[in-house]
Amino acid sequence: MAFLAEQSGKSVETAKVAEETDVPPVYLRKIFQSLARSGLVRTTAGSGGGVCLTSKPADVTLKDIIEAVEGPISLSDCIEHSSVCPRSARCKTNRCLSGIQTRIQQEFSSHTLADLM
To answer: Following DSSP, what letter does each residue of 29-67 receive, concatenated?
Structure first.
């Protein structure tokens, strides 16, 4: 994503991104599929096709990127879904982890793709 941000909105072939970032092309295509499903990138197939950002780098948070590829940021299932554990309402570990998770999400939300450029 940082490499795409540096391209000033131009579409870049996946092979070029793979070469510049040392990410295997097969893995990179899977990442781009996830990013495209989330609306962070646009992909164009065929000759002259490629991938480009759909938003300005300053409008894309690290949280957006992480969650597009990995899913919701969660330290433990019981934090997000109290029904997983019948003790979660009175669990001190749950309260502690919940606070940490909130701070992690806030931190990732406070940094943008533009910050990486």
So the answer is: HHHHHHHHHTTSEEEE-STT-EEEESS-GGG-BHHHHHH
**Nearest Cα residue to 28 out of 69, 58, 57:** 69
Would you give the DSSP letter of residue 75? Answer: S
pLDDT in tens, 7-61: 988 999 999 999 999 999 999 999 999 999 999 999 988 777 799 999 999 999 9
Quickly count: other Cβ atoms within 10 Å of residue 35's Cβ: 23
Backbone Cα Rg of the chain: 18
Exposed (0-12), middle (13-18) or buried (19+): which is 112, by Cβ within 10 Å?
buried
Residue 99's SS3 state is helix
